[in-house]
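Margin note from the TA: students keep mixing up input and output lines. Inputs are the sequences; the output is the structure of the whole complex. Example:
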Amino acid sequence: MTVPKSVRDRARTLHSELHKHNYLYYSRDDPLIPDAEYDQLLRELQSIEAEYPELVTADSPTQRVGAAPLKAFGEVHHEMRMLSLDNAFSDEELMDFDRRVRDRLETDSVEYAAEPKLDGLAISLLYQDGKLVRAATRGDGETGEDVTQNVRTIASVPLKLSGAAIPGVLEVRGEVYMSHAGFAALNRLAAEQGSKPFVNPRNAAAGSLRQLDPAITAQRSLEMFCYGVGKVTGGTLASTHIDILAQLQEWHLRVYEDVQCVSGVAGCMGYYEQYRQQRDTLPFEIDGVVFKVNRLDQQSSLGFVARAPRWAIARKFPAQERETTVQDIEVQVGRTGALTPVARLEPVFVGGVTVTNATLHNEEEVQRKDVRTGDAVIVRRAGDVIPEVVRVLREKRRRGARKFHMPARCPVCGSHVMRVQGETAVRCSGGLFCPAQRKEAIKHFASRRALDIEGLGDKLVEQLVEKSLIHDVSDLYQLTIDDLAGLERMAEKSASNLVEALQASKSTSLARFIYALGIREVGETTAQTLAREFRDLDAVMAADAETLEAVPDVGPVVATRIREFFAEQHNRDVIAKLLDAGIHWELVEQPRQQPLAGKTFVLTGTLSMPRAELKDRLQSLGARVTGSVSKNTDFVVAGENPGSKHDKAVKLGIAILDEAACVKLVSG
Ligand code: IVH
């Protein structure tokens, strides 16, 4: 069907009108027309699109309600790594930061851009020719998840940019968050529906963005503020951070209105103080403020260290403390049998979440702080740190409050409790006879960094063990849809999804498999090292102490734990059953020759091949690639218009390669 010109024109007008009102309403908080009028325009466009589906474009204002659900998120490789921030927890640490910046820049005072540190999650938006084509989470900084469909539902994210001189490729970065009001509404709904509430706005935002069904995300009130750019080509940006933010705003991206340009550390402290006092009155959660060197040329001469830029710092607010009462002290049994005392608390809102438990770590700690049931205590929570009991308000203690003692038997399985010399932890001796240890071992096996079995949550593992449907991890692979469908909160659909996820988890890596076994002292990094060094499970299982200790980072304790684990017939049986069930991995490649091991490279200027590619190739040959030139740099690779890094290399007498020479080097 051809679309009459008049209809096409009307649709175009509606597009631009609706985009404009969206921007004024959601990003500027300054609506021009009443909501009802907006709804009418939107409905008009919807009905035109219903009649002429060819008019539906990805950037149409009607496309916010959510596209069809996904099976899984795709991966996105960040061409420019998404960095994190270093933290300053005191004025002294902030002054140290400023001193380092001034020393490196050889200047007396630096201008900083000051902005709030929003407590949400970092998102990268990619605009091509002004259209939103991709949105991704930060992930590990190198690789994130493709959440385009979900981000499209966020009203303050423009699907199309407006204004002049928009770069052909513009990657914008910012924070997606949920306001206090949105969070309260979501949890009210959760309570009505009898589902579990979210602990804080950040988790709610992250959970909402990681929904496979965008229609669910669309119902959550997510918002976004932009705080910087990533990759930009085909256009020019201003030369200071604040002017770039102003440009973003002109293009209709949402930027926080009170980003200030402050002078020196005194200016930073003033801004921090202002926000520390204002914190509770803001409509959203912030956990500090961020200071960024305002001038871009200064930013680039400062460069980066590891995961964070040298030109920015987050000044975090102090941990919050509140008073509450200890209702009980319970003892939890962990994966390795360690018994941990936990204080059950009268719920209290502290540091942005409602806290109901605080770990007391071990018996010594309980004695030292002398925490007793019924005590009034001060609890503290900062950032992601587990809440802790700071101290007891002794003057409020009731008479007869009894001292805490570790039980002599495991509270779950009744086995004797062992005290190991030289360790503070006491352990249940029940091993895998103890249901608590079994449950924890299975939860660990299924966790994201282990075999990553989607849909096998803690509650489900508990049910499976309690109903004796599984005894160890290998039983997971015998579960059928029938076994699962009868369980609480398990419909046929989720049962079949889980069976599928189990099937998918069979294809893994040796490192994940070793980590998933839950050998004491063998964390993710050690598991990766073992996989790399031995390349084969049988070799790890057969290794003697000496061979194990020859592996980097494996000392006598870790070696003993590994040998104890594989000496246990029960563990060998479970491994055999897992392999029988079809768990497999690709052979780990023999590490290639690393001719550039120990050499540090810095890339600068415009290169003809993507910088990330050259970096990867250098790294794959063992080189380190860093962001700034120092006396430890071995080579500077200078593209066109190399700038200050090149000059510094000349000054320090460091070898300079042009791109062709570097390519020759990596091509061997
Ligand atoms: S800038 C290169 N600015 O904090 C610097 N980050 O702890 C990259 N965050 O991953 C970040 N508000 O998710 C920046 N105004 C702000 C921020 C901010 C919140 C988050 C962001 C980042 C994390 C680092």
